[in-house]
Amino acid sequence: MPRANGKTWPRKKLDRRLSPTAAQMPRLVGLGYASKLYRQNPALHDFTQFSQNGNEIAFGTIGNASTSEGLFFETINAAGVLQIPVLMSVWDDGYGISVPQSYHTTKESISKALAGFQRTEEAPGWEIIVVKGWDYSALIEAYQKQNAFAGLSTCRS
To answer: CA-to-CA distance for 26 and 23, rounded, in angstroms?
Structure first.
């Protein structure tokens, strides 16, 4: 145990460099919500160094194994409740941390597990689109479809 000023203190392991999987997901909520606020509040339109009148979509990527983390589900739920412009790609190769999906994902498919979050005509939610990650034209089509849901005509460069 470490000693300081003649006292013995219990050792605690704290590491500021920790980077748990899915830790980047909650940032999407903040970015998407900021975009929504800029879009809805004309008083913020003068702050062009932060936003172009809310004409943004927060974009994030995550591996399929990290979708088993609570931070991922908290982000999915918050973004769905707030109806903010967030686009998320889950790269699913069927394995996570070298184990089959059956060990870490209900229904062995995150899109199937998230089906309850799917938007409907009666209730808001997420638009869930499944495409093969190596099919570039299908990815572009999916991203353009998401732009339309967010009220944008094109991706901003």
So the answer is: 7
Non-local (6+) Cβ contacts of 91 within 8 A are 61, 62, 63, 64, 133
Look up tokens 């008083």; give the residue: 43
Supply the DSSP symbol for 126: B
Residue reference for tokens 């069927």: 94
Output the six-digit token pair for 96: 């996570």
From first to last of its 157 residues, the chain has per-residue pLDDT tens of: 455 555 555 555 545 555 677 888 999 999 999 999 999 999 998 888 888 888 888 988 898 888 988 999 999 999 999 999 999 999 887 777 778 888 888 888 899 999 999 999 999 988 899 998 889 999 999 988 887 777 665 444 4
- Residue 32 CA to residue 40 CA, distance in Å, equals 12
- The whole-angstrom separation of Cα 76 and Cα 25 is 9
Contacts of 59 (CB under 8 A, 6+ apart): 28, 86, 87, 88, 89
Q: Which fold has domain 21-149?
A: Rossmann fold (3.40.50)
